[in-house]
Design brief:
Blueprint (H helix, E strand, L loop, with lengths): L2 H7 L1 H5 L4 H9 L2 E5 L3 H13 L3 E6 L16 H6 L3 H12 L4 E6 L7 H5 L4 E4 L4 H14 L3 E7 L2 E7 L7 H4 L5 H4 L3 H4 L3 H20 L8 E6 L4 E6 L26 E3 L5 E4 L9 H8 L4 E4 L3 E6 L2 E6 L4 E4 L4 H11 L3
Parallel strand pairs: 1-2, 1-4, 2-3, 4-5
Antiparallel strand pairs: 5-6, 6-7, 7-8, 9-10, 10-14, 11-12, 12-13, 13-14
Helix pairs in contact: 4-12
Bound molecules: zinc ion.
Zinc ion binds next to helix 9.
Length: 344
């Protein structure tokens, strides 16, 4: 697009003193990685795309379902009907919002084997995940590689966010040495969540991203910011200095990046589902698998995944041989279904 139409597209943002023409130029040369494209990730992706951040990498392991639409603003009923992977559906909609920027959808589960590649080259990483295990993984990878990242979480009407600049600020592990009980007990799926708190948390995350990308670090909020839009509470806890003996940013141990800590199977955040990942990277011929399974149950497929229903279970299989098995919270049951129908 010509610079004339660009200055028209971004005119209100360029008028804003905090950004200006130079800030806009920096945004268009920037790369942001969004890890997890659910509610927060949707809001982040839309805002960063509209703001003209030049390259967006959207990482998500899941597909769109009807129950997502109440708060995951990048998705539509047809995405849910087609069960499109969230990364792909998000990239499709961004193309309609801003065709000038580059979007890279990645249908993968962020884990120890790929997280450093996923955040490499990013100027900023935004947390759109729903669990602390993945946040510690992002924290380890970002601190190790000195990439700025922005933590965010929301449950019920409550939300929290914090911006981590490795070695400049405390890291996630300095503030939460272990996953806080509030994050491990009720999750988005067991206690519900309303969209306004998503909008608030994502708005602060995106504002911080824009400050970082335009180089305005003095305007960062430098706090653990908490909100409750139902109880009408707002709190800003100033960050102290980083902990000298923090395992991550003090001692450089990065325990989640070790292969030994990899989980082959994981129960998914209140979904009554288990994710099974192959122990080594793999790819699977979904068409051949579909033919094989057709006699054993109902099979549906799109370009990215295959869904197989048998009895009370539903197996969704991705090209990387990963599967989300719905109908159980039991890892042993899920593993046996995986080996029976998919292999190994
Ligand atoms: Zn730390």
């Amino acid at each position: 697009m010509s610079s004339n139409s660009n200055s028209e597209r971004y005119s209100r943002q360029i008028l804003f003193a905090g950004i200006g023409a130079e800030g806009q130029r920096r945004l268009s040369n920037s790369r942001a990685a969004i890890i997890g494209c659910g509610a927060l990730g949707s809001a982040q992706a839309e805002a960063l795309a509209r703001a003209g951040v030049g390259t967006l990498q959207i990482v998500d392991r899941d597909f769109v379902e009807l129950s997502n639409l109440q708060r995951q603003t990048m998705f539509t009923e047809s995405d849910a009907a087609e069960r499109l992977p969230k990364a792909v559906a998000c990239a499709n909609h961004i193309e309609e919002v801003n065709s000038d920027i580059k979007v890279e959808p990645k249908i993968v589960d962020a884990n120890h084997s790929n997280i450093e590649a996923l955040i490499a080259d990013a100027d900023v990483v935004l947390d759109g995940t729903d669990n602390f295990a993945t946040r510690y993984l992002i924290n380890d990878a970002c601190v190790k590689n000195e990439v700025n990242w922005i933590y965010g979480a929301a449950v019920g009407s409550y939300g929290v966010t914090m911006t981590i600049r490795p070695q400049q600020t405390p890291c996630l592990r300095c503030i939460f040495p272990e996953a806080p009980p509030a994050a491990s007990a009720p999750t988005c799926d067991t206690s519900g969540v309303i969209m306004p708190i998503i909008s608030v948390v994502a708005a602060v995350q995106v504002s911080e991203a824009l400050k970082l990308l335009t180089g305005d670090c003095k305007s960062l909020h430098n706090s653990l910011m908490q909100f409750d839009v139902w109880r009408n509470e707002w709190r800003k806890i100033a960050l102290g200095s980083k902990l000298p003996d923090c395992p991550t940013c003090g001692l450089g141990e990065y325990e989640t990046l070790n292969a030994e800590s990899r989980e082959f199977a994981a129960v998914m955040c209140g979904r009554h589902a288990v994710q099974i990942s192959p122990s080594a990277s793999a790819s699977i011929d979904l068409e051949a698998l579909g033919r094989k399974l057709a006699s054993a149950g109902e099979v549906k497929a799109n370009d990215y995944l295959l869904r197989f229903r048998t009895g009370d279970y539903e197996l969704t299989v991705f090209q990387d041989a990963r599967s989300i098995i719905r109908g159980t919270d039991d890892i042993a049951t899920a593993r046996s279904l995986y080996s029976k129908y998919i292999g190994n």
